């Protein structure tokens, strides 16, 4: 990549101020710079600052190697066997991530040993320009230079920011084949930022969406969790449905209007500051399918409820290697919603109200009642019962009667 192609935006022509940057990140940037290393704020933090948003993290890029970074900071430790990074720890267990600029190696440089291949590819150090070219989208390849407070743009990311456009770096037909998860990330960023997908990017997703089924389940799982954490699960999965990606992304998830409407309600809950647990997200994903699996004409019992819950969420949990504890909680939340939907007055109602997962199940059922308003009176009735139950002391189990019958002596 030609160095002269970089666009340098001086401090007077952009909106980023050092006052907006985390103080500990500034300390790291300044120390690297004072010792003669290039020190840039990189990635999403630069993008967010230029958009007037508060970044979640402030990642740093440098030409110092991980071992050189460690020598500069006593509070530094190196992580990652395959992708070596420096983590610098500050008060409150805060970590600042420092990555050495990487580049894509030439084919002639690659080792013959397949096991060493991935490790080698991830740890070939390069220049800032080469590092920018390795990133996923142009808007994530902007750098803030602490030396002169300028913004460096190697790939046209500033123009894409101005035009609210999401564009893949390089040929999307190639980049999506290299890493199918980029397709999901493209939709995630476009929704989160309110950007439109650039034409070639959109067409490449349509053409290669089936490759999502070949992506590492652990990576797909993490991206799906991020959708819920950033309260964008509803709109992202809706767009995935429009692109017919769901069968390759979440096999078994039907993506109906009601199901996506429920996720949108859940997004509102998360946006209000209520943390989202993975078990709750899984139950929300499959609640409509679960509730509609019961025929109103049949008198379904708890055995049916348990069997249906297992049948619906087990394929998802097995595919994504979800821990048994999370799977158990998701199943119990579905069963709890089944009990709530049956109405009040069953024999074990008080014991059900005192179950530790019932409040969570009622939260989920209340969100569902906003999608199906005919359930709202029932949800309100359960809320009243829950409030009343909270004021009643929990009943302890009656102690077992001891048998004082005298033993008969035998001689």
TrEMBL record:
Domain of life according to the entry: Bacteria
InterPro entries for this protein: NT_sf, PolA_pol_head_dom, PolA_pol_I, PolyA_RNA-bd, tRNA_ntf/polyA_polymerase_I
Annotated catalytic residues: 57, 59, 136
Extent of Basic residues compositional bias: 395-411
Domain (Poly A polymerase head): residue spans on this chain: 39-167
Region (Disordered): 391-411
Keyword Transferase: yes
Any one GO biological process: polyadenylation-dependent RNA catabolic process
SUPFAM superfamilies per UniProt: Nucleotidyltransferase, Poly A polymerase C-terminal region-like
CDD domains in UniProt: NT_ClassII-CCAase
Protein EC: 2.7.7.19
Keywords for the protein's UniProt record, in alphabetical order: ATP-binding, mRNA processing, Nucleotide-binding, RNA-binding, Transcription, Transferase
GO molecular function: ATP binding; poly(A) RNA polymerase activity; RNA binding
Family: Belongs to the tRNA nucleotidyltransferase/poly(A) polymerase family.
Record PANTHER family: POLYNUCLEOTIDE ADENYLYLTRANSFERASE FAMILY PROTEIN
Name of the molecule in the record: Poly(A) polymerase I
Organism encoding this protein: Desulfuromusa kysingii
